[in-house]
Every structure is written in C-alpha cells, then in structure tokens.
Amino acid sequence: MKADLTIFRASILHFSKAMDGANVSPDYFDDGALVVSGDRIVAVGHFKALNAQYKCSLEHDFSGKLIIPGLIDSHLHFPQTEMIAKYGEQLLSWLETYTFPTERKFDDPTYCQFIAQHFIAQLINNGTTTAFAFPSVHTQSVDALFSQASKHNMSMISGKVCMDRNCPEFLQDTPETAQQLSHELIEKWHEKGRNLYALTPRFAPTSTDKQLSLLGELSQQHPSVFLQTHLSENHGEIAWVKSLFPQHNTYLDVYDRYNMVHSRSLFGHCLHLHEQEWERLADTGASAIFCPSSNLFLGSGLFSLEQAQKYKVNVSLATDVGAGTSFNMLKTYGDAYKISQLQQCPLSAIQGLYMMSQGPACAYNLDHEIGNLNPGTYADFVVLNPYSNAMSDLRFESLSRYRSEGAANTTEGIALSEDMLFALAFIGDDRAIEATYVAGVDLKQQLKEQRYALA
Ligand code: GUN
Ligand code: ZN
Prior knowledge:
Elements: E1 2-14, E2 27-37, E3 40-46, H1 47-53, E4 56-69, E5 71-77, H2 91-104, H3 109-125, E6 128-134, H4 139-151, E7 155-158, E8 161-162, H5 175-189, E9 195-201, H6 209-221, E10 226-231, H7 235-244, H8 251-257, E11 265-269, H9 275-284, E12 287-290, H10 292-297, H11 305-311, E13 314-317, H12 329-342, H13 349-354, H14 358-363, E14 381-384, H15 390-395, H16 397-404, H17 410-427, E15 433-438, E16 441-442, H18 443-450
Parallel strand pairs: 1-4, 5-6, 6-7, 7-9, 8-9, 9-10, 10-11, 11-12, 12-13
Antiparallel strand pairs: 1-2, 2-3, 4-14, 14-15, 15-16
Helix pairs in contact: 3-4, 5-6, 12-17
Bound molecules: guanine and zinc ion (ZN).
C-alpha cells in the first residue's frame, strides 16, 4: 500500500496528443481510473488494471460520471467579473460606459483581493483550472490575482494591462512606466509556482507607437513570456486602428511591426481578418481566441472557424468575461456551436472540448503540465455529473438505461460522452461540475464549504 497514492474511478475522456483541431480523436476509458500522487497524475487507464498495479491508499469512486481535463479559458478579464450583463452597447461605448469606470476601482488593493477571490471561485465553480486573465492597469491587481492563484497552486497567466492613450487619464500609464512595471512584474511573478506572465497591451488604440515598441522589446527579451491582446473585434474599432496607424496595411501589422506576433501570442476575437492576417497568424504559430458569448453579446460578429481551419490557425475557446456572459466553458462551447451553425459548419462537442483543453495546451507549449491527463502533468481535472438537474435527469435517462446494460466499448463511450457534453452545453450549468481538482485538491469542495468565495 502506497500512502501517497489516490485512485479516482470514473469514465475518462481526454486527448493525449497534439492533433489537427479539425480532426480530433480522444482517448476514452469507460471504467477508467486516474492515479494521483500529490499534485501530479501518475497513471491514466482502465480501473481494473491500475487498481491491481498501484496499491492506492485512497479511492474516490465517481462511477457513472465523467472525468475530463481541467478546462483552459484563454481570454477573460478579472476586473469585469462584477459587470457581466451590462445592457445595450457595442465595444467602444461599452468600454467607455461600463468597463473603464469599473476598472478604476482596482487602484485599491483591498478591492483587488476581494474580486480576485470571487473571480477564482467562479473559475473553480465552473471547472476552469487555467486562465489567461487580463487584470487592470494597476500593479496591485496583478499582485492580487497571482497571490490568490498561488494560494491554491492554480495555473494563472496574467500581466499588467498597458494603456497610455485614448482612455480616461485615471487609467493611463506611460510608455516608460508600462515597460518598467511590466519588467518588474515579470521578475516578481513569471514562473513563480504555477504563475506565468503575459505582456498585455489592451489593444492597439490605447497604446502609442512608443508604448507598443517598448513592450515589443520586452517580449523579445523574454521568450518564455506570453503576449495577450485584442485583434479585429468590431468594425468601429478596426476603422479607428486604421486612422491611428495609417502606415500599416492591416490591424495585425501594427502588432507585427513591434515584434508582438509569435507562438506565445494570444489574439482575442479575430472576427474580421484579411487573408494575409490569417496567413501571418498561421506562419507564426500565434493563436486566435474565439470568444463566442462575448461576440454575440456585444454584436461584434461571427468568428469564422472555416477560415481558421483553412489557414490552419490555432483556435482556443474563451469566455471573455465580462463581455462574455458566463464563466462556464461548456456553455461557451454551446454559443460557439450556434455561431458555427449559422455558418453551416457545425463544431462538434469533442472539437469544442479540444479547444478548451489539449488544443490550447499544445498551442502554448504547456501540454507537459496541463490540458490532458497524461502521467507527469498536474492533477488538474473535472468530474462531470450528467444528472445535475431535473432537465438533465430526463435528457440522460436513456444514458442510464444504456449504462445498466454493461460497459460501453470505446466508440460507444465516446459517442455517449460527446452527447453528454453537447447537452450540458445547453441544459447544464455549474451544478454539472461535481468536482474541480487543482493540483490534486478538490477546490470545488472547499468552495461549497466556504460559501462561494475561496479563502
Ligand atoms: N477590447 C479592448 N478592451 C476590451 C475589453 O475589455 N473587452 C473586449 N471584449 N474587447 C476589448
Ligand atoms: Zn477581452
């Protein structure tokens, strides 16, 4: 008996390898098991074999439920947690009317800590274990987010928002302070525990050439640091970029000019791209981040999966809270499905799952740590309970009848799991997330005990 080993029994679905996002095929174990030691996965496979091989001291029996990797939200805004669902504006007036006044509050470190707790609680409640999060311009917002994530050994990627024009003065930095403070925050947080830094110019209109140039220099000096920003979300925004940077052919060119387009770049939205922008994203290995609920909410446009697939651009799914309307990545997939249906190019639930797990992990070169359930990775995983409300009980009644006839083979099991994920995108909610393990600890259980804000 090994004192430090725990075995988790459930059906298991994940992607063990990098795949072409248009053509993904998962690994599936119907009566499966994960063996976990401390914060890491030791083995994944069939329950009977692993139970015999590893003499685990503890067993958690989630039979009839589905374990999937902890989900990755590739783009959202932590200060906007409190302002989800503000009515009636499109991007630029939404920023002026609601967003900038809300972000102003984050000059107060106590307030930053308060919202950081709620933000992380919302992620955990919905099964998200890794987030690429925009904070505000204030360094205290970065400190609050990274320190709260560190308390729970949770994977967090963030970095001070930089803006030196075209926003209220109370949110402006300068080219030099943006560079200096970003540099200091990299030293303080990057690769400290599970934290990773992302240089974060908000978007081209709120940075001068000088600021973009200094941040691009930093990006070149720190090849393991990410870069996250917004690209081509709204027609008014695109026209504005054209007038502010008339010397550049396209929106992406502005970032490219300053060495910001590379394999660790994440571009939120990418709705109205020219062919040469798709080509450049593909050539550099940069990622396009599809934020469906936000795009519908702000009336920004429809992301073209067809174009992304044609040019072989990495696509990750993201909530984009607070223009996004939910922290729930399965619901986010549901909105992506509707958008893809409008374009006669339906996105399957298995493809959707890939875009919130192994897809982004591979695109960001983090798949040795997150995104799958391979041995050696962090024990970040989610237990899905399909029977989580009256509607889902009814919807999945046939599933339970099927199950009582015996174990499903792999093809049947994948089809059943896919049907479950698909339905949960529409009739499920956070109640379907029975447990959210982060580095081997069920943080959702802690949340339940502490009433919706993690200590
Ligand atoms: N573009 C620049 N800032 C933002 C933001 O906060 N949200 C969204 N959706 N788009 C942006
Ligand atoms: Zn955003």
